[in-house]
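Slide 14.
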Amino acid sequence: MVNPRWVDFFYNRQKGWIDGTTLFIDTLKKYCNPNFVVLDLGAGSGEGKPEFYSIKRLVKVNIGVDINKEIYKNEIVDKKVFGNVYSLPFHEEAFDLIYTDYFLEHIGLADDFVKEVRRVLKKGGFFIFRTPNLCHYVPLMAKAMSKISRSTLISFMKKYGSKNEASSLFYKMNTTGKLKKLFQENGFSIELLQLIEKEPSYLMFNTWLFLMGALYERTVNCTELLAFLRSSIMGAFKKC
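Slide 15: predicted structure.
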């Protein structure tokens, strides 16, 4: 595991530094309203998510949905629903805001997913997301691997303390171009779409890999010409 002093040196002590999760949650909270009914798609168990991750106090109700029954352990949301994102158990225009964090990469039927999001989202409602950028080296490696080698990687990362997994990954909408095309064709306008590179938390299990990741972060953040190589895409789309 990486010595916390390295993380402090490269990130926590840097003036104005905001970690990736804080940036995403701060962005999400800007779109919240006390009267909003909100849906967290792919909410999961909520395990490991800090208290500030919750938006329960900022909205009328926050509902989490997931196809994994671990959803029933989730304390981040108000209500937990077991369900399929391609056929959500909600009526049309049920939500003012829908969000998802590192979940779009697991969507195999991209167009069906976007159509279902549009169906349950109110007109003028927002879809907020954060997802890996396919042009970053981590998704490229995961996509290139066979099932066997991917399983080996998962076992290795778990052994050395990483909670990141590389299973069930499709990357059907993991470039800014694909996201724009999919959502604009389905009646959304682009409110926010940016590429971000933050601390390499996925490499915390090994000091040398973390240092290499920190060097990569510094490199791709030094100029907008390298923005396409940043690790994540964050956006806010509005239903027209």
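Speaker note: Residues 40 and 64 are 5 Å apart (CA to CA).
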